[in-house]
Write a structure and sequence with these properties.
This protein is of the alpha+beta class. It is 30% helix and 26% strand. It has helices at 6-11, 65-80, 102-116, 131-136, 153-170, 199-205, 210-218, 248-257, 265-277, 308-323, 382-390, 417-423, 429-440, 495-499, and strands at 13-18, 38-47, 53-62, 88-93, 120-125, 146-151, 188-193, 223-232, 235-240, 243-247, 281-289, 336-348, 372-378, 404-416, 453-455, 458-459, 465-476. Strands 8, 9, 10, 11, 12, 13, 14, 15, 16 and 17 form a ten-stranded antiparallel β-sheet that branches. The structure holds adenosine-5'-triphosphate (ATP), N-((E,2S,3R)-1,3-dihydroxyoctadec-4-EN-2-yl)hexanamide (6CM) and calcium ion. Keywords: ATP-binding, Calcium, Kinase, Nucleotide-binding, Transferase. One of its GO terms (molecular function) is ATP binding.
């Protein structure tokens, strides 16, 4: 990525425009000597610290009008040849996400860049929850090269459900069948972060910055993403790309929804409260280990731009598509069963890095390897749980605890002890009374009530769920987190700058 080639330079150019002299910013004196100066300005991506991208520009002068026009023409033709760049985008803005700045962020920081890059947009400001999702079932989707969501993880989830759902509907696939092979969604989604956690943006771009994300959309980046489907009793519930969390993160979410007025702070408030309550939940987890992928959750290397582990999974996926129908795989593969008392059960399709935890819940998880990392945090003391949480914020290994287990899986199921007991018709009155007692006294840690699942920031209605990872089901306008060039802290130069 630090090499100069003709292609790299064009990839970094946002737009080329003829420069009008009365608008010229710099007066170096050079052009004043020319009889009749002509100029063009190249707008390009400047890479700054910490994965931040900025729009910079440079103006070229010459006396020969014909030569100047030839340059403009040649550069514009090269830009035209960049087929992965979007020309027409559908934009959904959630005006109430995060700090309620979505509309302002889009209008002030993103729309001018799209217009500079000659991208046409249809903009919808949502009026209620599920507006974007429902709208995606109605619009003429083929008209667009991508869908942009301005908001947080919840807004992204809505757009993703709309797009994946629409794809399956158009292809006659029944989403309620947990074993149905889902149809990939080739319309990319761009995320302009304006939410509270923005974990999907942070984990795929490396920074929460609307301008950086807009530039990744403009240059036409493409990052495939694994998606998990969640079912209960052959009924489709939701898709998930970041966190499916039961216990700790489910309880935080449930409590925080009542405090939406607090904005992003609600998670700190409910996080503290949930930590103090220290509830654990009994249940059974069964899972199929992901044997196809090369990595492990304890790897030291993380998923980065051009990740070879994700590329390998992409090849395997292509082979599977060719072979489909010839053999029935997977279903016969082994299931591991674990019963226990858990403070948290977290299944993550990506690292879940976010500003609160820059390395995330599973630092070595991959964006597109067809697997999820299943993290089981068993009952332990408050002090140990705090030590576990603190390790999400420093360099220490959060899996290096006797009460934490982590597995890389391709599917899993969960049933809580409570629903198992109910289903097996246990009419133990004493047990039921005890359940009631504990519900009435929430300070009691041996919680006999169920927790709820946090699915990418939304609560699920059932505690018993069946989850499958669908390798690279959708694509984002992103490229994964880039490896830092040479010196960690030095601003890395873009190819355009190196050429200059
Ligand atoms: N106009 C609207 N009014 C009310 N709710 C909306 C509207 N548009 C979208 N929503 C819903 O708001 C929810 C939360 O939005 P969003 O994800 O953008 O912000 P957040 O919850 O603050 O951030 P994060 O998900 O990153 O924690 C989404 O689930 C979405 O369905
Ligand atoms: C003593 C200090 C300890 C600090 C520990 C910090 C650990 C933070 C890990 C954060 C992991 C976020 C996972 C992402 C989840 C998102 O899909 C979801 C929707 O946006 N956000 C939350 O559920 C919101 C979850 C908010 C959690 C606080
Ligand atoms: Ca994955």
């Amino acid at each position: 990525h630090c090499q100069i080639s003709g292609l790299d330079v064009i990839e970094g150019i946002i737009a080329v425009e003829e420069t009008e002299f009365n608008k010229k910013q710099r007066n170096t004196g050079k052009w004043q000597k020319m009889a009749k100066p002509h100029a063009f300005t190249v707008y390009y991506v400047k890479k700054a610290r910490n994965h931040r991208w900025r729009c910079s520009d440079v103006t070229f002068w010459c006396v020969d009008e014909h030569l100047c026009n030839q340059w403009i023409q040649a550069l514009k033709e090269l830009l035209e040849m960049q087929k992965s760049r979007p020309k027409q985008l559908l934009v959904y803005i959630n005006p109430y996400g995060g700090r309620r700045q979505g509309k302002r962020i889009y209008e002030q920081k993103v729309a001018p860049l799209f217009s500079l890059a000659s991208i046409s947009t249809d903009v919808v400001i949502t009026e209620h929850a599920n507006h974007a999702k429902d709208n995606l079932f109605e619009v003429n989707i083929n008209k667009y090269d991508g869908v942009v969501c301005v908001g947080g993880d919840g807004m992204f989830s809505e757009v993703m459900h709309g797009l994946i759902g629409r794809m399956q509907k158009d292809s006659g696939i029944d989403q309620n069948n947990p074993k149905a092979p889902l149809v990939q969604c080739n319309i990319r989604i761009g995320i302009i972060p304006a939410g509270s956690t923005d974990c999907i943006c942070y984990s795929t771009v490396g920074i929460i910055d609307p301008v950086t994300s807009a530039l990744h959309i403009i240059v036409g980046d493409c990052q495939p993403l694994d998606v998990s489907s969640v079912h209960h009793n052959n009924t489709f519930l939701k898709y998930s790309v970041s966190l499916l969390g039961y216990g700790f993160y489910g309880d935080i979410l449930k409590d925080s929804e009542k405090k939406r007025w607090m904005g992003p702070m609600r998670y700190d408030y409910s996080g503290f409260k949930t930590f103090l309550s220290h509830h654990y939940y009994e249940g059974t987890i069964s899972f199929q280990p992901a044997r196809h992928t090369l990595g492990s959750p304890r790897d030291k290397d993380s998923c980065r731009t051009g990740c070879y582990i994700c590329k390998k999974s992409e090849q395997q996926l292509a082979e599977q598509h060719k072979e489909r129908g010839l053999k029935r795989e997977e279903d016969e593969e082994e299931w591991k069963v674990i019963k226990g008392k858990f403070l948290a059960i977290n299944a993550v399709n990506m690292s879940c890095a976010c500003p609160r935890s820059p390395k995330g819940l599973s630092p070595a998880a991959h964006l597109a390897d067809g697997s999820a990392d299943l993290i089981l945090v068993r009952k332990c003391s408050r002090f140990d749980f705090l030590r576990y949480l603190v390790r999400h914020t420093n360099q220490d290994d959060q899996f290096d605890f006797s009460f934490v287990d982590v597995y890389r899986v391709k599917s899993f199921q969960f049933t809580s002890k409570l629903s198992e007991d109910n289903e097996s018709n246990v009419t133990d009155i004493g047990k039921k009374r005890f359940g009631q007692f504990c519900r009435d006294h929430p300070a009691c840690c041996c919680n006999s009530a169920n927790s709820t699942w946090n699915c990418d920031g939304e609560t699920l209605d059932s505690s018993a769920i069946e989850v499958r990872v669908h390798c690279q089901l959708m694509k984002l306008f992103a490229r994964g987190i880039e490896e830092n060039c040479k010196g960690e802290d030095a601003d890395s130069q873009s190819s355009v700058e190196q050429l200059l």
